Amino acid sequence: MLSAVTLPAEIVAGLLAAPQYHWLHQTISELGIPAGTLGGMPMHSVLNLALVLAGACLVAGTVLLLPSLGRGWRRGVGAGALLLCGASTAATGLIPLDVDVALHVLVSIPTLALAAVPGLALGPVLLRPGALRTVVLAVSVLALASGIVVGLWIEAPLPGLLERVAVWPTTVIIALLGVALVGRLPAQAAERSASVGAAE
User: Fold this and answer.
1) Per-residue model confidence as pLDDT tens digits over 89-136
2) Using CA atoms, how far apart are residues 121 and 73, in angstroms rounded to an integer?
3) Residues 30 and 39 sit within 8 Å (Cβ to Cβ)
4) Which pTM was predicted?
5) DSSP per residue over 19-37, as a string?
6) How far is CA 53 from CA 17, 31, 147, 148, 158, in A?
7) Nearest CA-CA partner of 113 in 135, 90, 140, 133
8) Cα diameter, the chain
9) CA–CA dist 165, 156 (Å, integer)
10) Exposed end of the chain (fewer CB within 10 Å): N or C?
């Protein structure tokens, strides 16, 4: 759930970088370039720290809640994507564009390519049938397509827009899945207690 800290950090950094920052034409990573350098932004450290924190929380949360996901290919795919996205997000903050452009792009690709996978894999498992689950799946498909386009098409028009279509909704969806999973913990604990009591 804490992985969503990147959204307010990015919005604040982008607003304070106005008017030099263009939301549609510039990527999220460009907000992480230090002020004083070419294209530098005033709140670069806030965004980079938020990325590291979000990535670390995503990895830690996935590891801690992994037993609650149960078994099955959907759970395995979803958990694997969450771990890779978490590591990728943290690395993106640790290696800003101004440090090493090629390495920054390399470590950020998993986030763009896989951020929609948890919603597609775990949405049907953690969310009840209904409008919310339908919206999560539809938005995840759109985000996946956008992530693939911006990840593979270097000269894609409006890269800032495409990147945000891939990242913003999936950030919210991952937090939503976290809430749903935590909400299931009491019921799972009760089931385990009942099983132990029956065995005794």
Assistant:
1) 999 999 998 899 999 989 999 998 899 999 999 999 888 889 999 999
2) 8
3) yes
4) 0.85
5) TT--TTTS-GGGGGSBTTS
6) 22, 16, 22, 25, 28
7) 140
8) 69
9) 14
10) C
